[in-house]
Amino acid sequence: MNPHGNPHTLAQARRRASLDKRQRALTALAALERQGKKITHAAVARTAGVSTWLTYTDGIREHIEAAQQRRQPTIPPPVRTRSTTATLRTELELARQEIRTLREDRDRMRQTIQHQLGQQLDALDTAHLTERVDELTRTNQRLQDSLQRTTDDNHELHARVRILETDLAAARTSLRRMIREENTNR
After folding, report:
1. Which of 31, 48, 145, 170 is most deeply packed, by most CB within 10 A?
2. Which H helix or E strand runs over 105?
């Protein structure tokens, strides 16, 4: 049994969740337009209950920008400035609340994952682990013995090479001497 779930099923679930969030964003955008409210990425995200990041993705951003262009400002400039400041303050407070919520969600998820990992570690069979450690120890000992034999063979071969090199040097010297004697006798 795969403790992480079926990857295909998980991918389908993520795809469905993504499509659902996108649809909610488009529905929220239409609702904001019908209500005559100001169209912003933050307002769409807040109304749809999705992240602001999603409203900037392809397929959503274009709709929001088109809605912003269709909407004509009906508020005179001085009132609009005051409204914009108030709106910005409200959006800032909403963003702070969303950040707090996201941090709480992150902490909850982190605790859940830690708990699940702890359960998985507790569920491991220690007999299996002991058996595996013993097997690895035996394998390690075999490899160490093999390394020692190979090292000893290597030392013996190096000693033999030195002896053969000495014999070869002596044979060369003897051969040179014989050639010199042969050349002088002629």
Report:
1. 48
2. helix 77-123
